[in-house]
Amino acid sequence: MIKEKVEKIINEQIEKEAYSSNLYLAMASWAETSGYEGVSNWLHAQANEERMHMLKFISYVNERGGKAVIPAIKKPPVAFKTVHDMFKQVLTHEEYITDSINEIVATCIEQKDFSTQNWVQWFVTEQIEEEKSVRAIIDKLSLVGKNNDNLYLFDKDILGMRGTATAAE
Ligand code: OFO
């Protein structure tokens, strides 16, 4: 049986994953209407992944005898300054999510819930990968600078990175 404190913090995480999914969907939509097909595709794939993370947490809480709460989600921003700026926001958000996953680990240790601590390690590893891939994109965008031709090539480059991921996968 899942401990109350662990159930509570995972329910908070469910809301954060739902927001992450919608945030990236909002970014994907902005990119789509701004002519960045590749960037939009990458963000659609990311939004789908975040939804998958949310579903993983929901199943886990329910399987362990807790109750997952499906949250209301606050509205994400609708517009972004530049592609570069937007990916910096993605990184800041992912760093926030990493801290939040670490808090789950800390709560599991405090509550001696070692099965959940073990289960949540998948997310610990996932966050390392997510931060790494966003940092690599930001590095590329720093090289691109303000040159629109380069940005066009960057968009083509990122299009091939995650397959085609527009609607739900
Ligand atoms: Fe971007 O990560 Fe979910 O957890």
Give a verbal description of the structure:
This protein is an all-alpha fold. It has a single domain (about 5-169), classed as Ferritin, core subunit, four-helix bundle (Ferritin), CATH 1.20.1260. It is built from 6 helices and no strands. Helix 1 (about 5-35) runs antiparallel to helix 3. It starts with a helix and ends in a 10-residue tail after the last helix. The mean pLDDT is about 95. The structure holds hydroxy diiron-OXO moiety. Hydroxy diiron-OXO moiety binds near residues 17, 50 and 53.
Indicate the topology:
Elements: H1 4-33, H2 37-63, H3 83-110, H4 114-119, H5 121-144, H6 148-159
The site of hydroxy diiron-OXO moiety has 9 residues, from helix 1, helix 2, helix 3 and helix 5.
What is the structure about, briefly put?
With 169 residues, this protein is mainly α. It is 75% helix and 0% strand. The longest helix is centred in the N-terminal third of the chain and has 30 residues, at 4-33.
The largest sheet is: none
What oligomerization state is this entry in?
single chain
Helix content: over 70%
Low-confidence stretches: none
Q: Ligands bound here?
A: hydroxy diiron-OXO moiety
Beta-strand residue fraction: under 5%
Mean pLDDT rating? 94
In CATH terms, what is the fold-level topology? Answer: Ferritin
Supply the number of structural domains.
1
Number-wise, the strands total: 0
Element order: H for helix, E for strand? HHHHHH
Report the CATH superfamily.
Ferritin, core subunit, four-helix bundle
| Count of discrete alpha- or pi-helical segments spanning 4 or more residues | 6
Supply the CATH class: Mainly Alpha
Class derived from helix and strand content: mainly alpha
Query: What is the 3D form?
Result: elongated
CATH architecture: Up-down Bundle
N-to-C CA distance: 33 Å
Give me the Rg, rounded: 17 Å
